[in-house]
Amino acid sequence: MTTTSSYEQDIVCWANEQAGLLRSKQFALLDLEHLAEEIIDVGKSEQRELANRMAVLLCHLLKWHYQPARQGSSWQVTIKSQRERIKRRLVRTPSLKNCLTDSDWLADAWDDARELAEKETAIPYDKFPEQCPWTMAEIMSTDWLPQ
């Protein structure tokens, strides 16, 4: 098998070719530089997925707290669903648990949640706390909702 596609031209074709080269043990033909980049990107993608789910969860917790008159089952379903999906992701990729204790990671997820909540509620971004007021235990607790 020879490489006919470049990384820049068609990444999917390139990835399939690289996988074929690995399987056939043609290591000398591998595009090592781009393979290394893609492996790092896999980890970053997993972190982004977790951060997006956390931002959606936090956004709905904000909406629950700041719009009590609008609380409803759809928000509860979203909160429950995001918690479950986050927990599943952490089971599948245990190293992501480190994100939950990383203050910078949480600050980014919180900022994303505030931006989402502003868009969905028309409550100004700066009306929400600058830092997440809830513990990770509360955020991830099956029964907990902010009052």
Structure commentary:
The structure is a single chain. The protein is mainly alpha-helical. It has a domain at 45-140. 63% of the residues lie in helices and 0% in strands. It has helices spanning 11-23, 32-66, 73-92, 103-121, 136-140. α2 runs antiparallel to α3 (73-92). The chain is elongated.
Helix and strand topology:
Blueprint: H1 11-23, H2 32-66, H3 73-92, H4 103-121, H5 136-140
Helix pairs in contact: 2-3, 2-4
The best one-word shape is elongated
Q: pLDDT under 50 segments (min length 5)? A: none
Between the first and last Cα atoms, what is the distance in angstroms? Answer: 62 Å
Rg to the nearest angstrom? 20 Å
| Fraction of residues in H or I helices | 55-70%
Strand count, sense and closure of the main sheet? none
The topology string of helices and strands comes to HHHHH
Number of helices: 5
Global mean pLDDT = 94
Summing up helix and strand content along with how strands pair, one would put the structural category as mainly alpha
Strand content: under 5%
Counted beta strands: 0
Q: Gist?
A:
The protein has 147 residues and is mostly helical. It has a domain at 45-140.
Descriptive labels:
single chain, mainly alpha, elongated, 5 helices, 147 residues, 63% helix
